[in-house]
Amino acid sequence: MGKHSSAVTRSNNNRRSVYITAVGLLVVSLGAVFVVRSFGSQSGADGFLGGKSCDDPTQVSLSTTPEMQPSLEAAAKSLAGKGGDDGTPCLQFTISGAPSAKVARDIASGSDNRPDLWVPDSSLWVAQADDGQSVPSIAVPSVATSPLVLVGRSANFADTSSWLRALGAADPALLDPLNTSPGALALLAVQSERQKTSASDTQVSQVIVPLAQRLGSMAKPYTDVNALFGRADQDGSKVVVPASEQSFVKYQDEHPDAQLKAIMPATGTLTLDYPMVVTAKDDAETISDAGKALAAELLTDASSQARDQAGFRDALFSPLSGGRGVGDLTQLTKPTGEAIEKALQNWTRLSLSTHSLAVIDVSGSMAEVVGNKTRMQLTIEAASGGLSLFPNSASLGLWTFSTRIGSDGGDYKELVPIAPLSSGQRTKILANLKIQHAVPNGGTGLYDTAIAAVRAVRNQYDSSAVNSILLFTDGKNDDPGSPTLEKTIQTLEGLRDPARPVRIIALGMGPDADAEELRKLAQATGGQSYVARNPGDLRTVFIDALQSR
Q: Any idea which UniProt keywords this protein has (predicted)?
């Protein structure tokens, strides 16, 4: 994002609609609005008096991200001192600081807090500030920049060939992508670098899906970068933090003993670009001129030195003085509005909490040996590994099925009721998985089990989560006492409620799994089916299943 060179488009005037999630609109404010100060030709909050010919200065309210507020205040004060002299406009700025996501939501919702000018930390927020009547215009593409870097202890940077590999090899602590630019840019960097790495969807999913499950469903997503730096700096920590170079440099200044370093993966990076945005509804041309005048003041020698000391680069991405930061940049292609929308949509979808029932086939065919393990053993390993992908906020239960194995002669057995994944719940599920074995001569009562599982999850429906059944099987229904496939599909379709969806995610294993049968069962509930023909595909299939939320 920003004024890029080479592969990166220089224009920052992309006004295409960017996804605003319902979750994002409901999130509590990221922080209180910071101190408001006035700088102008009359005695303001700081008592500064401007040029003598400025008796009636233009009043301009400006909101900016907190870390940029001191630089803009200094430039506004300097500009006020020249007001009325040599054609310098007479301007009085009232400057406040607030997170970019909050300002975007305020503008989009028609709040009275709408400023005349706005300097967010990234232009990705501009399209999200659409109030239904107009998208704010960009007067100056960038008044400062700061590249996205990855911060952590040196031991956690064994592979810095790409964002994907660096994140996959450590414990990423991502700032909330729906409300912070570094978090959103980290997701976008993983996608943008695929032009260079040719990483597959599966490779990306194996890193992003667990990350979204772990971080996205937190009651309070991360928003304090300094707190994350503190965690990353602890002895033995594997935490790495995608953050702005400016925030890292500032942390270094304040914590000279910190054992942290910042790196830019070899594929390159994206940048925070700090555009000057016109958000006034009236007299937009005058306000635009005021923004341009303030931006020009930021280019003076004195302002440039202050900007550099604060850890910001100029609009051309010149390295910081004194060898600070990561030096020369390699830039990734600027994401399109469509790419931004897709990344935020995916994160929101993958972040939703889970309310699921895992249903494991224990029919006789599960005793068949594949390689040096039985299908039962391979399934248990896949289910156990999949369990680790779910955060503590998820709820999960466990059934097994064959034919006539239930206490009432049914085809399924309830082992662990659906409950939040506390350490105790995880222990119960893992303990029950480990003792499972294939039932000798047991058939596959797939149809009755599928219907019963959907009804069970419907009875415990959680409106705040994705409600689903994870159905593992190696074959097809062979229970002569069960309804036909057509009747089963009719029953599942009859249970379907768009307002309270319960989806079957069917995971077939081995060459005997009937892909068409599983597809029809899952489709009847709005779910998806996957078949792993080889044991090594099971983890990939499980990741794919989580993506079908």
A: Membrane, Transmembrane, Transmembrane helix
